[in-house]
Amino acid sequence: PIPVFVADYVLMGYGTGAIMAVPGQDERDWDFAELFDLPIVRTVAPSEGFEGNAFTGDGLAINSSTDGLSLDGLGVAEAKSRMIEWLEAHGHGRGATTYRLRDWLFSRQRYWGEPFPIVYDIDDRPVALPETMLPVELPDVTDFEPRVTDDPDALPEPPLGRAEQWVNVTLDLGNGSQPYRRETNTMPQWAGSCWYYLRYLDPTNEDAMVDPAVERYWATGTRDGKPASGVVDLYVGGVEHAVLHLLYARFWHKVLFDLGHVTTVEPFQRLYNQGYVLAPAFVDARGIYVEASEVEERGGTYSFRGEPVTRENGKMGKSLKNSVTPDDICSEYGADTLRLYEMFMGPLDASRVWNTADIIGVHRFLQRLWRNVVDEDSGAVHVNDTPADDETRRALHRTIASVAADMDALRFNTAIARLTELNNHLTSVVARDGAAPREIVEPLILMTAPLAPHLAEELWSVTGHPETLAYAPFPKADPAYLTEDQVEIAVQVDGKVRARVNVAADADDAAHEAAARADAKVAALLAEKPARKVIVVRGRLVNIIR
Q1: Over 90: is that where the pLDDT of 230 sits?
Q2: What global pTM score does this model have?
């Protein structure tokens, strides 16, 4: 037998059922035990030098042995796992995970949102509207603010509460015409956004949310040669999405799965959290953020309307008053430049600091790409069908392979760097030959399209394609141009690098040594003192020891 107490300090959000009180490791349980003079037995050894009451830290289990089970000496986490295993093995219970969701999706007292398809009868009992009466549409109102009364115990009146003709209706729900009152709270649009990805699969279906065959195709079919295990291949969102849209979308999908409407437990195959875009923020002497766009810099110090402010970096947003308006960037540089800069700032999953001065770099890349295709003065297209030289062709196919891999891994910054290198090489070709080879230009345009779609579409058109490039396949790299004909190796003499020479990529040890000895500087050193030993690391170095 164990005593059972009813206490008023148990957290309501923790769960339901019986709670095992452990006063030795919980401050509230300790206070309760002391108040009622209950024995306190520590089951976790406090750390050395601990002088408090309840010990809430991690430690080794003590006083935790019984017939057939000993947890003494185990860490807290391991002790819990061992205890659950023992209970399951002896048929006394099973381990389970309890999930808790914040109930913040509904009961929003505002106008905008999906109305609940619920009415209340004369006895104030909720009644669900039949499908024939759906959807419930919002009425036209002129006042969108909730109304607060002087009664401190009264809830604010929703805006829909004042639309009396809409709220109070007479309906026949199977018992003849009866008066009903509509629910005046609304869903805050999150309800729809939690499953919108399913509606994308079958947006014109008037009989169902999504046709089962269509859902099965996208959720469990084979796409790009790989079996699918979710409706959405890739979910990209900030870390804040983990406890907002992502969590609730997964919850809704699980409910739909349990009801048999979808065929996968999880809606998303892969999650990728992008980092924050940071920007300078400025705080005045009161500790209040001021408008960053109005801050002036002079000699390394900052001021706002004549008063000194302190600079710091923070997440770009309204709260820190450091937002950069995309419209201003687009009007000066174009939307493609804005897109490119955001992707070129750094790895997608890392937080990056915005610097408007750096935008000019990616803008120049787009300008050079345009000039490589279109003459800056005449507007004529200088692209020809002359075959590219081997060096240029090799540069193209290496870029295709690198960009394809970068795109798959969401490394957009390195993909842009690769395209910039190829475009710079193409610039030298145009300067030398007066025109750009079509076999280089068209794959370059197609690789640029996902990053700068507007410029790419225009270039695709001016190079003679009447149709959009959206349906053109992504270029494929030719493996024959991905291998090296020659490699550069270092030549060491007595452990010190004296030269660098080129050898065939498949050269043997003898060829490596011959190329090293043929270098004039190395030959002069060997004339002074002959080699005693030669060590060859193929494709990397030749080390000559005298």
Answers
A1: no
A2: 0.66
